[in-house]
Design a protein that fits this description.
Layout lengths: L3 E4 L3 H13 L3 E7 L6 H5 L2 E6 L10 H11 L3 E3 L9 H9 L3 E2 L4 H8 L1 H10 L7 E2 L6 H11 L3 E9 L2 E6 L2 H19 L4 E5 L5 E9 L5 E13 L2 E7 L6 H17 L4 E9 L5 E7 L6 H8 L3 H9 L16 E8 L1 E2 L5 E2 L2 E2 L2 E3 L4 E2 L5 E6 L6 E2 L6 E9 L2 H14 L1 E3 L5 H9 L1 H5 L6 H5 L11 H27 L11 E6 L2 E9 L4 E5 L5 E5 L7 E6 L2 E10 L2 E6 L2 E8 L1 H7 L13 E3 L4 E6 L6 E2 L4 E7 L2 E6 L4 E6 L6 E2 L4 E5 L1
Parallel strand pairs: 1-2, 1-4, 2-3, 4-5
Antiparallel strand pairs: 6-9, 7-8, 7-9, 10-11, 10-13, 11-12, 12-15, 13-14, 15-23, 16-17, 18-22, 19-24, 20-21, 21-23, 25-26, 25-32, 26-27, 27-28, 28-29, 29-30, 30-31, 31-32, 33-40, 34-36, 34-39, 35-38, 36-37, 38-40
């Protein structure tokens, strides 16, 4: 077994590999760029080597620097994680040439499966069902349109070296095919240094289901069941689970056997994933093979009991797999939510900055026998950089069945505290609470169909609104009681506390009566029978658990002159608690109008201007492309909301802009 390995990656996957290596008694070496000098993976590793500037093209993607770091530290093997160099056959070959073990598949398998065109041809030869499409390279927009028409819309335009949703566009007509080809090519060039693209038929009502495979160097290849990855936004997975709520045993076996056949056809060993598109009749088609550890591997580990990183290390060291196909079972159900530094209320645009608060839920077995696992590479006070992927953490839950796993995830998301940057916690909560998701009747179009206008937050039900009003009244009275107690320490400064309050949430008012009790507070809204609300929350805490009517509510709390902000299950409301007299006077105050930005195009995220598509004096139509902003390796197209004439352009290609910085102005 190896004594020391180097992890050629960063963030949560580097930390994940370090944890397993540490448990196996293997020393670890981290590599880091200028932007990551204070990163968590650097702190966790036994040694760390600086490899260059922040841009990945000058650090994490430079093979010579990685191999030099391994040689300098005496590392016997390199684990590439996912992304970066993990699917570069040249890197695997370079490690081999340097006498360093590559903890992954052989170069030939990476090369064969890394090119999507070649992989589809090999899959077809191995008897794997494939999607209809054009497997040759496409030279220009005109050829892309011609091929798309021959295949029949809708089509998927994809980078042949792509992954992670980058360099991928769906086109439903000629205009989208032209634009999608240009954007896919540009994004692929930026992300992978390879602008080749191909086109295939887009399967309607598809589900994205993948098979985890694991092989050794002695000819054994197993499939470790499937993962459901259909909850996606812009082809980027958001929520994964294992097993799939859609597959039956026969389909699972057929998909698994085809995945194994493909792996054997290319001499595959180590961990890998064969991805399929599955239609509503359970017909499945090969999509691609990822010759690396997947982001979502923890859900497979939770239902099989296997540590995939450990298995990869053992295989790289020449060991035989210690299990057979019959040993692979499905135990319970696992969920994974990808926590991203992106603002769902601003169309999921990337967010960067400092994590002023980062408190994950407690990991391990919980009181109800469910399990929480959080794979992360950040810490409170750390920075989220614009140079890398926006992932903050992968929150996983396990339970005996699917609904219990979803419920455990809902509670864990409520308990997860992240402040300082935009993040998708409320959106993940909304997905977990969505009836269609809970029933398992979704496709890869779930997010587009259920949130067509973007995410605006979860609208509380009448019962949830009442509960939030009670909690707001509880918080206000407890705060007032503390102030009263402080005042009472000084002679002649004790003040009486009212029991009647007005709670306003949005445009709705609640008449609340709060009577302090020994174990909590009796709170009633209107003429209802009082409910006992109890909590250990004290003023100043930003998170609290409240018991009411036999139920527990986990609520994030922040106070300001505007009121008490309460966040729970994707709901985000501000409650104003006043005396009835003050509430009556407040209702007479004029409402301040927001700033008019209707004639301005503001940068919606921190990013780099890649393209300005119009000029001063141009007349633009609704939906027309205005500019392209690159942030966190993704290119975002900014379009006109309505017809207008360009009055001023304030930004240029190459400019790095902050959020809400002016790009252009219209007449």
């Amino acid at each position: 077994m190896f004594k020391k390995i180097l992890i050629a990656n960063r963030g949560e996957i580097a930390c994940r590999v370090i944890k397993t290596a540490r448990r196996m008694g293997i020393a670890t070496v981290a590599v880091y760029s200028d932007a990551d000098k204070d990163a968590l993976h650097v702190e966790m590793a036994d040694e760390a080597v600086h490899i260059g500037p922040a841009p990945s093209a000058q650090s994490y993607l430079v093979m010579d620097k990685i191999i030099a770091a391994a040689k300098a530290t005496g590392a016997e093997a390199i684990h590439p994680g996912y992304g970066f160099l993990s699917e570069k056959s040249e890197f695997s070959a370079a490690c081999e040439a340097a006498g360093i073990a590559f903890i992954g598949p052989p170069p030939a398998a990476i090369a064969a499966m890394g090119d999507k065109i070649t992989s589809k041809k090999l899959a077809a030869e191995a008897g794997v069902s494939t999607v209809p499409g054009f497997m040759g390279l496409i030279d220009d927009e005109a050829q892309a349109v011609k091929i798309a028409k021959q295949i029949g819309y809708p089509v998927m335009i994809k980078a042949t070296a792509g992954g992670g949703g980058k360099g991928m566009r769906i086109a439903f007509n000629e205009a989208e095919a032209r634009e999608g080809f240009a954007l896919s090519r540009s994004e692929a060039k930026s992300s992978f240094g390879d602008d080749r693209v191909f086109i295939e038929k887009f399967v309607t009502e598809p589900r994205h289901i993948e098979i985890q495979v694991l092989g050794d160097k002695h000819g054994t290849v197993l499939y470790l069941n499937e993962r459901e990855c259909s909850i996606q936004r812009r082809n980027q997975k958001v929520v994964e689970e294992a097993p799939s709520p859609f597959l039956d045993a026969a389909t699972r076996k057929a998909m698994g056997e085809q995945a194994v056949a493909l792996a054997k056809a290319v001499g595959y060993f180590s961990a890998g994933t064969v991805e399929f598109i599955v239609d509503n009749e359970r017909n499945f088609y090969f999509l691609e093979m990822n010759t690396r550890l997947q982001v979502e591997h923890p859900v497979t580990e939770l239902i099989t009991g296997l540590d995939l990183v450990e298995q990869m290390i053992r295989v790289a060291a020449g060991e035989k797999l210690a299990m057979q196909q019959s040993d692979i079972t499905i135990n319970g159900w696992a969920m994974e939510s990808r926590l991203y530094a992106e603002d769902p209320f601003r169309n999921f645009l990337p967010s960067i900055g400092r994590l002023t608060r980062y408190r994950p839920p407690r990991e391990g077995e919980q009181r109800d026998k469910t399990i929480i696992r959080n794979d992360t590479g950040v810490y409170e006070g750390g920075e989220i950089s614009m140079f890398y992927d926006p992932m903050i953490a992968k929150l996983c839950t396990w339970a005996p069945d699917r609904i219990l796993a979803i419920n455990a995830m809902q509670q864990a998301l409520d308990d997860f505290e992240v402040e300082g940057i935009g993040n998708n916690l409320p959106f993940l909560s909304a997905v977990m609470g969505h009836d269609r998701f809970r029933k398992g009747t979704f496709t890869t179009a779930f997010i587009a169909e259920e949130f067509p206008d973007g995410f605006k937050g979860v609208t509380p039900s009448p019962d949830e609104l009442l509960n939030l009003a009670r909690i707001a009244a509880f918080i206000h009275v407890k705060t007032e009681l503390r102030a009263s107690e402080i005042s009472g320490t000084m002679p002649n400064h004790t003040r009486a506390l009212s029991v009647d309050w007005n709670v306003r949430i949005g445009a709705q008012d609640f008449a609340a009566r709060v009577i302090p009790e020994t174990v909590g507070k009796q709170v009633s809204i209107g003429e209802e029978r009082p409910k006992l609300v109890s909590s250990a929350w004290v003023p100043g805490q930003v998170h609290g658990h409240f018991r009411m009517n036999g139920h527990e509510f986990s609520v994030k709390i922040s106070t300001s002159p505007q009121g008490i902000r309460l966040r729970m299950r994707g709901i985000d409301v501000t409650a104003q608690v006043r005396s009835p007299r003050v509430a009556a006077l407040a209702s007479l105050m004029p409402v301040k109008k927001p700033r008019d930005t209707s004639k301005l195009l503001l940068c919606p995220m921190p990013g780099l201007i890649r393209q300005i598509a119009v000029a001063v004096g141009d007349k633009v139509e609704a939906g027309q492309m205005l500019a392209v902003v690159e942030a966190m390796k993704m290119e975002n197209v900014l379009r006109a909301e309505r017809g207008a004439k360009v009055k001023k352009i304030a930004a240029q290609v190459g400019d790095s802009l902050a959020v809400d910085q002016l790009i252009m102005e219209f007449e």
